[in-house]
Amino acid sequence: MKIMDREENLREEILSVFKNTEVSSPKRKRLTVITEKALISEVMKFLKDRGFKQLCAISCIDWIEEKEFELIYHLSSFESGIHAMVKTKIDRENPVMKSMIPVFTNAQTYEREIWEMFGVQFEGNPRLIPLFLDRWRDIPPFRKDFDIREYVKRTFDVIPSLEEKQNG
Amino acid sequence: MDRGKISKWLKYPEKMGHKYSLWAIYFATGCGIMEIPPVLTSRWDAERFGVLPAATPRQANLFLITGYVSVKTLRPIVRTYELMREPKYTVGFGSCPINGGMYWDSYNTIKRVDKYIPIDGWIAGCMPRPESIFIAVTKLWMMIDKGAATGYIRYRENYRYYRENQERILGKLDWPPLYPEKMGEDNG
Questions:
Q1: Residue B7: is it exposed, middle or buried by C-beta count within 10 angstroms (0-12/13-18/19+)?
Q2: What share of chain B is helix, strand, coil (3-state, %, to 5)?
Q3: CB distance from B174 to chain A under 8 Å?
Q4: Along chain B (188 residues), what's the average pLDDT of each consecutive run of 10 residues?
Q5: What is the pLDDT of residue B188?
């Protein structure tokens, strides 16, 4: 089988099973699957059965103007060497997503981080507790409407140094 | 022993003792910890300067804060500093503890560590070379000679100020104050 054929075969296979799904291969050994929220765990299971054994990462993008979060699941296959990205968009006002732990166990930590940094709720993840932040009281810091400079001024810069305090 | 220093030893035995027995505890907060192993081992050999690594904070009197301090690591830093016995000296290592360095606008990095614990000396640079640790140590000797390394006295005198700043960032601290008698009075 030629190298480019593998991506093409996989593309046709996915399109024949799933409706409302776009599949493209922007270049060699890359596969982009854009699907809807409800189908995502079936797509992941489907890809896992076809050699995509490793979940490398989950990333999240805040599309503030479209009022959407985009979740991207990065899968990789050791057999064919293809890197597949499964993308989906969820509502920004009420960001709820089904947990991917039943398919890939290591999704737990990735989902925990996205929960902390973007505030996306993952249903079925048993351990959504703070990972990097210590007693965070503000909106999640990776959201685009979070003003980092203003937060730094309000939290760290207002504390006077000892000299300022003693000199009044 | 250097014969020229005998008179100094007889005059100020405690100062000379503090100078030449610095036991370092280093807090591996950030990238600065990479400079510590060559400093302590044969390449630069800190023992020439009387600096040795200590096993626990209770046995140490030199605290090296190597690298950036995140909000989460400030809590163990305060804890470690309070566990150390007096006299204790603190050195902030690298530009991040001084003013945040490249993390000056980060939501999770402490800017200016000296608002939370007193710092006796700073080593600027990103990263500082291991030689600069020895320059800092010799500067610290001079400060101890002159009685200028008074960070721990400053901490005791202004304990309420420091504790309030710590609680402002970390929330209510779950250990009792080190100097409870200083908490009541206004020393600001």
A1: exposed
A2: 50, 15, 35
A3: no
A4: 82 88 84 86 89 90 90 91 91 89 89 91 89 91 90 91 91 89 67
A5: 47
pLDDT of residue B99: 87
Q: How many structural domains comprise chain B? A: 1
Write down all domains in chain A, each with its CATH number in brackets. 3-167 (3.30.460.80)
Query: Per-residue pLDDT averaged across A79-90, rounded?
Result: 92
The ipTM estimated for the assembled molecules is 0.81
Residues of A in contact with B169 (CB under 8 A): 155-156, 159
Please answer whether residues B53 and B40 qualify as being in contact, where contact means their C-beta atoms are separated by less than 8 angstroms: yes
The yes-or-no verdict on residue A58 having pLDDT over 60 is yes
The DSSP letter of residue A89 is: E
Query: How many residues comprise chain B?
Result: 188
Containing domain of residue B145, as a range? Answer: 3-184
Residue identified by tokens 């200590």 is B54
What's phi and psi for B83, nearest 5 deg? Answer: -75, -25
B111-to-A4, A17, A37, A61 alpha-carbon distances in Å: 52, 54, 41, 28
What is the chain B residue with the closest CA to A154?
Answer: B107
Mean pLDDT of chain A: 90
Contact between A129 and A76 under an 8 Å Cβ cutoff? The reply is: no
A134 interaction partners in chain B (CB closer than 8 Å): 70-72, 75, 170
